[in-house]
Structure formats: structure tokens, C-alpha cells
Amino acid sequence: MSKTHRDTIQVIDCQILAHYQFEGDQYILTLDSPEIAKATKPGQFVHITVSDALAMRRPISIMSVDIDNGTFDLLYKVVGEGTRQLAERKIGEVLSIIGPIGNSFESTDKKRPLLIGGGVGMPPMIAIAQQIKGSDYQPFAILGSEAPFPFDEKLADNNVNYAGATHTMPLLEDWGVECRLASLQNFEGVYQGYVTDLAREYLNTLSDDERSQVEVYS
User: Domain ends where: 80, 101, 122?
Assistant: First the structure.
């Protein structure tokens, strides 16, 4: 069932195609909706009815889309009763979704986007990275987490060490987007500190001309 509002916002029943659990009560949920996959812009989110018992919808940021297959991915962490019930939903079940909602990020002519996101701020940065992958932009993403990262981080192919940060998110590596990770939890290959401190380390490696082309998204 689908009903369109304001050209792009829709109320849709979406089937769960995949639901992966990671350490720290984190989940990646893949939902079927060609309409939302096509209409989504980086920075937008959806409202989800997590169960019949909870009338209030939960807002969750869209992490990535697959327009060819008509799907979109959400990354969320269990922090209350709503997300706890969402975590119990199974493949094949259907969720009522409103979306995509919210303002998207505005692009500029600066060619070095610096994408900074920690925790629930990671999905919008991943969405931007997906949009600009393969372009003439030279993005650099910094992702932070105090829980174990919701992916199997790996050593970056270019082997560049930014003050101890050597590991990256495999998905971004596959997209050709350079990325490093930050945390205060002493994870291997991860910068020991805040995402803003790692951003400073990265900026210090750039020339004045290169820094003039940096646009920060966070």
C-alpha cells in the first residue's frame, strides 16, 4: 500500500528483507520499497511503526539505498522499548513506513567533503558518501562509536596512518571513499579520541590549497 504526500513523502507498507544484529545492540535493517529508495536524499529519515502495541512511530535515519533492487537500509541501536520491539521483527514481516522525511544536505562546488558522524550520526554521512562515490569529489569520512562498530572494520587499502587510525568501513572502501574510525574504547586500528580530533589530524595532512576545498558535513 502506498500513498504519496508532498511529491516524495509516502506512507508505505515495507517488507523486511534482512535484519542483521551487531554487538552493542545495533542492527541494520533492509526494507523493500522502490518508491523510498528512489526518492531518498542524504540526510533524510523515515518514521516506523515498530509494532501494533506502540502507536507512536520511531524516526530512524536512512543509511543507504539500492535503487536497482528497490531497497533501503537503516542502522539503529536499541535504546528503549520502541527500538527493542523493532529488533524483534523478523524477515518477511511488514512495517508501516512514512518517508523519506527531512531536509537533505546541500552540495557545494568544494571538492573535498569531510564527512563526520558518530553513533546515530553515522548513517547520514554514509548516505552522502554513497551519493558522491565515483564522482570527481575527494571525500574523507570519519565515523565514531563508543560501542563496537556495526560492521567488520578492516585495514585501509592505502595504508595511510592518521595518528593511529588505520582501519576503515569496508562498504566505504568498496565505494572508493577514504574513511577512518575514532573511539575512546581502544579498538585496534581506530583513533583513540573524538571524531573532531581525528578531523584535525586529517586536515593537518593537507596543503593550504587542499584545505580551501574542504566542506564539512556533520
Answer: 101
In angstroms, the CA 125 to CA 142 distance is 9
Query: Do the beta carbons of residue 2 and residue 11 sit within 8 Å?
Result: yes
End-to-end distance of the chain based on CA atoms, in angstroms? 34
Half-sphere exposure of 53 (CA within 13 A, CB side): 6
Cβ(52)–Cβ(7) below 8 Å:
no
Task: Give the other-Cβ count within 10 Å of 60's Cβ.
Answer: 23
The set of cell numbers assigned to 102 is 527531512
Residue 5 lies in a domain: no
204 and 140 inside one domain:
yes
Task: Report pLDDT digits (tens) over 42-87.
Answer: 999 999 999 888 889 999 999 999 999 999 999 999 999 999 999 9
